[in-house]
Amino acid sequence: TDEKFEHDEL
Amino acid sequence: MNAFRLVGDLCHLAAIVLLLLKIWKSRSVAGLSGKSQILFGLVFVTRYLDLVTNFVSPYNTIMKVFFLSSSIATVYLIYTKFKATYDGNHDTFRMEFLLIPCALLAIVVNHEFSPMEILWTFSIYLEAVAILPQLFMISKTGEAETITSHYLFALGSYRGLYIMNWLYRYYYENNFDVIAVVAGIVQTVLYCDFFYLYITKVLQGKKLQLPA
């Protein structure tokens, strides 16, 4: 399973 | 944060400022695709929903606020303030041909089946193709104002620099997001034809004319 992404990019 | 991403964000910022300057100084939105600007506005709205719930850094928050407000302002300028100069006859790309496939793909291919994550994924897919109405409009009119081509060059460069950023993060931070990378490559490839024209024409001082 894909780990949850912390979207830190704009 | 790395230099590629910072310069990329600054190129993105420059593109948006260039566009606003062009509109404000020439008091005209001639040659601009309102549809692309609507799509970019939608990209920011669906991507920055976490603006208040997920604090990353002051830089991140300030840039998100600027991108959101400037894209909404641009749509406002095109469709209300300078509506008289909006060339709707050449801005005929069907937005639904982009919105529906991106929405469907975001539902099927995403990192997590949650509303926020699906909206983020939708914004990534949509950003990759949001420039198409603008490029389509230029191909129909056969030309673009020089400042509009500078806008497009900065806009295309920003995602190209992000690809370098993703390479860097892959090797040094072991961080890799296949969805953003694939969409970013598609987005940058769409500009290649324009990049060629920009470098061979605009940088030679000529106007951007597409071969008829």
UniProtKB/TrEMBL annotation, chain B:
The chain crosses the membrane at residues 62-80, 92-113, 119-139, 151-172, 178-199. Pfam families: ER_lumen_recept (PF00810). It comes from the Eukaryota. GO terms for biological process: protein retention in ER lumen; protein transport; vesicle-mediated transport. Its main location: endoplasmic reticulum. InterPro entries: ER_ret_rcpt. The keyword Transmembrane helix applies. GO terms for molecular function: ER retention sequence binding. It is a multi-pass membrane protein. It is found in: Endoplasmic reticulum membrane. Keywords: Endoplasmic reticulum, ER-Golgi transport, Membrane, Protein transport, Receptor, Transmembrane, Transmembrane helix, Transport. GO terms for cellular component: endoplasmic reticulum membrane. PANTHER family: ER LUMEN PROTEIN RETAINING RECEPTOR. Belongs to the ERD2 family. This is ER lumen protein-retaining receptor. It comes from Bugula neritina (Brown bryozoan). The lineage of its organism: Eukaryota, Metazoa, Spiralia, Lophotrochozoa, Bryozoa.
